[in-house]
Structures are given as structure tokens and as C-alpha cells.
Design a protein that fits this description.
Number of domains: 1
Number of helices: 9
Largest sheet: none
Structural class: mainly alpha
Strand content: under 5%
Distance between the termini: 21 Å
Number of strands: 0
Length: 244
């Protein structure tokens, strides 16, 4: 059965309320990391990685969408549908932004772009949370016109207080563009890893953070754990359905 998509809607469900709650919990998590995580590994690993990436950004969305709603991975935008088109779009978006990345990297000094790009391409938590989780819940609640706008606002929200105020509006517009692209493809591979590595690469440099090989190592492990969580909950949900 093909889900009917509505341009405008107002059907607030438990899923959309929970999505809003996680959206408002994310700013203090992000703020704690940018202000204290650089000096404290405990804050970085406990608050940002465990509470942020693994709980708020992965476990809660996976449990709600895969286990409670039974939507499957496609309910989080993880799908092979439109895969080739999504990858091509991602490459095009990356190519469009790459020149700006080079300019920003030059302005901010000696940036080793290889580990920085790989690190940003590993930020599955952000794409999964903002688009796979928030935007798709917002679409069900408010329709596909408002959904990318709301997800872009949430994307901006957790950067407030951590990024310079002049960067917030550009973050909104870049988040909106990616939201529109995701709304068309409904596939997170239209954003990550290729396009996100470049676009987020620009944002993290302007935000004062440059990823190195140590961050590549840490976030490779984070992605592995995220994939395990998604796989485990998805498999358990299928087994529960079969046994019912």
C-alpha cells in the first residue's frame, strides 16, 4: 500500500510530539559539547556521543519508527528506492559546494581536507536525526510543504549559542535545501556521505571545528554502533511481527 503524501496536514501524533521533544533536547546536548566537550572527554563521550548520537539521534528514532510503528528502515529514509538518483544528486550537490569549501579552508588556515571530509561524511547522526527522523515525522503531522522548513529550523536551533549568529541564517537555508532534496528522494543517501561531507565540512570549519584522523576513528566507531542499533531493532521488530 502506497502512503498518500499530503502537501498540508494537521495530524499531530505521539511520534511527532516525541520528535519535537528530541528536537528541543538536542540544543543543550550540542551546546555542552561545543563549550565543554573540547576540554572534557567525559562531556564529549557521555553527553554528545552517548546521550546525543546514540540515544537522541539513533535509539529513540529507531525504536519508535522500526519497533513501535513498524515502518521499516524506509521510515527513516534508509532505502534502496531512488538509490542511483540519490547518489547522483549527492555528487552534484557536493560538486556545487566544493569550491566554497576550498575558499573557506584557505581562509581558516592550514586545513587537511582529507580527514576533515571523511569525518563530516561520517556524521550519520545528523542526517538521520534531522531528516530521517524529524522531517519525516513532521511530514506526517504537517505535510510535505512545512516539513523541510521545520526540520531546517530544528537544524538551526541546536547550533544557536554554539555558532556565530551570522552563521545561523545560512545554516537555515542550507538545511532547507537539503530538506527539499530529501523530501523529493526520501533517501538519506542523497545527502550522506557525499554531499554532507562537503556541506558540513564548510559548516564545521566556519564553526571553528576541524576534523582530524582521531575524529575519523571515533566517528567510524560511532557509525558502526549506530548501524548495529538500527540492524538490531529492525531485526527484532521483524521477528516479533513474524511470531505474532
Amino acid at each position: 500500500m502506497i502512503e498518500e503524501r499530503k502537501a498540508f496536514n494537521f495530524t499531530v501524533s505521539k511520534d511527532s510530539v516525541l520528535a519535537l521533544i528530541t528536537a528541543f533536547l538536542m540544543p543543550p546536548v550540542y551546546y555542552a559539547n561545543t563549550h565543554y566537550g573540547m576540554e572534557s572527554s567525559a562531556v564529549f563521550f557521555i553527553v554528545f556521543i552517548l546521550l546525543g548520537h546514540l540515544l537522541l539521534n539513533t535509539l529513540i528514532p529507531a525504536y519508535v519508527v522500526l519497533h513501535l510503528s513498524g515502518e521499516g528502515l524506509s521510515g527513516l529514509g534508509i532505502t534502496t528506492n531512488n538509490l542511483i538518483k540519490s547518489i547522483v544528486i549527492s555528487i552534484v550537490l557536493a560538486a556545487i559546494s566544493y569550491y566554497q569549501l576550498l575558499i573557506v579552508a584557505q581562509e581558516y588556515g592550514d586545513v587537511d581536507l582529507l580527514p576533515h571530509l571523511i569525518f563530516n561524511g561520517l556524521l550519520l547522526w545528523e542526517v538521520l536525526f534531522v531528516y530521517g527522523w524529524l522531517q519525516l515525522r513532521f511530514e506526517k503531522a504537517f505535510g510535505y510543504i512545512l516539513a523541510p522548513i521545520l526540520s531546517a529550523l530544528c537544524f538551526c536551533l541546536y547550533h544557536v549559542g554554539s555558532f556565530d549568529s551570522a552563521e545561523i541564517l545560512p545554516l537555515f537555508f542550507s538545511g532547507l535545501i537539503f530538506g527539499i532534496v530529501f523530501g523529493i528522494t526520501r533517501n538519506i543517501f542523497s545527502l550522506i556521505p557525499i554531499a554532507w561531507s562537503v556541506s558540513s565540512g564548510i559548516g564545521t570549519i566556519t564553526g571553528g571545528f576541524i576534523g582530524g584522523w582521531d575524529h575519523v576513528f571515533i566517528y567510524s566507531l560511532v557509525v558502526v554502533v549506530q548501524i548495529f542499533i538500527l540492524w538490531k531493532i529492525n531485526t527484532s521488530s521483524h521477528n516479533t511481527t513474524k511470531g505474532a
